[in-house]
Amino acid sequence: MTQPIVVVGAALLDGDRLLAARRSAPPELAGRWELPGGKVEPGETPEHALVRELREELGVTAEPVGRVPGEWPLKSGYVLRVWTARLLAGRPEPLQDHDELRWLTPDEIWDVDWLDQDVAAVKAVLTVWNR
After folding, report:
1. Which helix (H) or strand (E) is 125 found in, with range?
2. Smallest Cα–Cα separation from 112: which of 22, 8, 1?
3. Strands, E, within the chain: which ranges?
4. In the structure, what pLDDT confidence band is assigned to residue 115 with cuts at 50, 70 and 90?
5. Which of 5, 32, 77, 80 is the most exposed place for a label (fewest CB within 10 A)?
6. pLDDT for position 3
7. What pLDDT was estimated at residue 117?
8. Which pLDDT band, with edges at 50, 70 and 90, does 1 fall under?
9. Domains in the chain: how many in total?
10. Residue 124: which residues within 8 A CB-CB, separation 6 or more?
11. Which residue positions does the secretion signal occupy (predicted)?
């Protein structure tokens, strides 16, 4: 059986806030919100991919803290795995794939229109947040 292609997502936490990123592309995803991240490249660990993706997409240095239990199937052959991450340096800016970023408190989490595949992941993040 073929191994799934792993996509990493970052539950980037800053105290009592979680960073959400609004997609600008592709058109079928534009305007919906997600946890920032991206595809793990061949020869790369998921944690290294997470650090690289956050640098490329948001211009920040972050550190993976812990894996959020669970994984969520995406389009054919892809699976989403999420890590909590801590911001080490920089201020997040939407450099690619996103047109807006928003820091959300737990009370604001459902104020944005999450991508379908991110809803279950965000629910899992809420179970480990500030534990």
Report:
1. helix 116-128
2. 22
3. 5-14, 17-23, 33-34, 37-39, 61-67, 72-73, 78-89, 98-104
4. very high
5. 77
6. 82
7. 85
8. low
9. 1
10. 68, 69, 70, 82
11. none
Residue 66 bridge partners (DSSP): 84
Alpha-carbon distance of 68 to 109, in angstroms, equals 17
DSSP-derived letter for residue 25 is: -
**8 Å CB contact between 80 and 114:** no
The pair of three-digit structure tokens given for residue 118, joined into one six-digit string: 């991110």
CATH code at position 89 = 3.90.79.10
Per-residue exposure over 43-68, b if at least 16 CB sit within 10 Å of its own CB, e if not:
eeebeebbbbbbeebbebebebeeeb
Q: Write the pLDDT tens digit of every residue in 16-74.
A: 899 999 999 888 889 999 999 999 999 999 999 999 999 999 999 999 999 999 999 88
DSSP letter assigned to residue 3: P
Q: How confident is the model at residue 131 (pLDDT cuts 50, 70, 90)?
A: low
